Predict the 3D structure of the following.
Amino acid sequence: MEGLIKGLAEVAIGFVAGDRDDHPERQSSPGGEERSRSTWADVVSTGKHEGQGQAQGSSYGYPSNHRFSRKDEEAEQESSLGHNAYSWDSRKEKEDLAHVKEEKTDGDWEVVGQGSHNKKRHPSAFHKVPKENWQMFKLPPSDQMYTNAIHYGADTQPSRTELSDLSEACSKLWELDLNRLVPGKDYKIDCGEGKRAHQKGDMASGSLFKWLGDDVLRRSTYARFCSLLDNYNPQEGYKEVVTPEERHEQTAFIQEIVRTPPINYLHKYLVEKGIVSGNSEEFKEMLTHLWFDLYSRGGGHGSSSAFEHVFVGEIKGHGENAVSGFHNWIQFYLEEAKGNVDYQGYIFPRRYGEHPDSETQLLTIQFEWNGVLKSVSSTLVGVSPEFEVALYTLCFFVGKEDNHVRLGPYSVNIKCYHLGRDKIGSAFPIADC
């Protein structure tokens, strides 16, 4: 990789309000400094593969010696406000271009454009990206090209203090997120005006994201994360059908993120705690099962997974008509660019006089997705996919339902709900008072 990514300059920002409406359904069992760009951006944009290691794929299953340290917990009933019926008539077709819906094509370029639910013109409308840049992410695992295992010289060995204090461990994960974006350099947001969760009306005249750097979604872990986002039917309760191609994408994503400092730290931490073995293949199997194994939600067998709920989002039916999950900023950006998300403003902070701005990386917001309301949602903006996977996995194994931790300048409660013994029902951040 080019250069050493120094991390994020701290910002003096107030804390925003927490997510009140995202608890998983109750079930007794699961059903300012210059940052160097990733060389993967050059590989993808030029089609050259020099210097990249090739990794072989493997089939994933729980290792026989794997054990969980947490007691079984039943997840709380998810409650949220919503309006406008939403009907999903058919499974979305696979999309080549990092989960950006194709409105029309122009030769070898794919045009991403406007959806019907968001009338605001997003800056990314009609943005063109070469299709061939993304084709390598559709290859079988044995043919995939991966970045070399580079840790930027970071110390990923947990200290005794970190092993005894979850907040210290989470703080270390924040430091190790060397792939995190810098506000104003890699992207820009406009928070608009604030509102209370119960208030109606759109308090944002434009989109949340004003722009995102062209290279961001071509970075290795970001690109592989994007390839997963269109693998799901968002209507809660509908059985998911996982194709061989989608399993390849899951394998490729896990294979990529284990090369990063946050996941490397997570593995060593769980080994020290006696939760997983030191075998890297078994560790990858565990991550794959934890995040991608299907379980029941909303009455449908095999209708949901931790990845779908936390990162992609789901739409409740049966008269509720509300969005649940959907806590990832990349998914938000892409859906907003497509016109499927209508940002409606931030939720007023709990502390008087503190308001988010373009530098804030912990946001509590309100939006509509495909015409269905998410009255309160919280997200960490600009963090890498590997950081979020590491953070929520760590809290799942060694934390509790409420995990009050520090992430850089932010005091955060990482909510983590279990489904049965070994499934993540939901996980998301809430700004602490």
